Amino acid sequence: MRITSLGRPFYHYPKSSISANNAFVSAPKSLSGADIFCFKGSEKLGDKIGIIPSTSQTSLEKNIQTNLGVKPIPTEVKKFKNGETYVNIQGNVRGKDIYLMPASSPNVNDNLMETYLKADAAKRGGAKKVIAILPGFDYARQEKRTQKGEPIAARLNMDLLKTSGVDEIITTDLHTPAIEGFAPNSLCVTHLDSLDSIKEYIESKHLSDLTVVSPDIGGTKRADKLAKALGCEKAVIYKQRAVHNEAIAEDLIGDVKDKNCIIYDDMIDTAGTIAAAADLLKKNGALDIYVCAAHGLLNGDAMRRLEQAPVKEVVVTNSVPPKVNAIGKIKQVDISPQFAEAIREISA
Prior knowledge:
By secondary structure, this protein is an alpha/beta fold. It is 27% helix and 26% strand. The radius of gyration is 25 Å and the shape is globular. The two termini are 34 Å apart.
């Protein structure tokens, strides 16, 4: 007696139902009356993938795991006395697609080193593929040389991710989409967009007379997409930046008088640009001002500036963990469903 496993259900068709060229019918295995045969069930997602957790789980990470129904692989991360990072993946990764959750230390460089080491460890452990989840792509603002003597740090980060063993990156709302071009053909970039999540939140406020405002010339296309999604007008602020993290809003292109304004940017770091933009909008007769951004970094004096700025709400995604000193104006929207869906498409 033989036990035969079939990859898909076997149907016996009468000869009259088979096309002349057999385009849609494959020859079945030869089975005798004494044979027992069964069908292979579809492999569960949890059998195909592994999740390497961060050292301190964020709401984004927890929600992704809940959405997928996959438990993380135990992983040890610690520091040596001299500051070196140590990583030990304490579970089986062989033959699986391994997803690296974003490291969540306050130090960007420590996070990157942890990601590189996890990727290297997973590849050396026999992982089929390593996918780094990087909601905020570090060094994205250094994507070009603005003066002699500077590096192109975004390109260097992409190269180091590839060298460490990363096969694919899932990120959202890159500072500029052109950063995707830094990745070689062998390093796939899945670039998600939080626009729909932010749009849904704004629509839930039932605001009238809306205008979407780009806080600088470089964000005009981004603001245009949200304005089209909301079916409203847009405006642009022209700014000057004398030094890093200091911006001066000089002029406004567009009409905001008696309008509810949505300042839309990819990230809020120290909030200098946002505060200056909000002041300029108020001087030009704007009503309520909302701020929306994919990444709420909120470093330095950001909380103080936003608290003092004429801003009603600051809407960010959970791509970055909330600060412990977050003010009441800060609202987070969840983008974990988009990441979970991307994971399913990659590994299902």
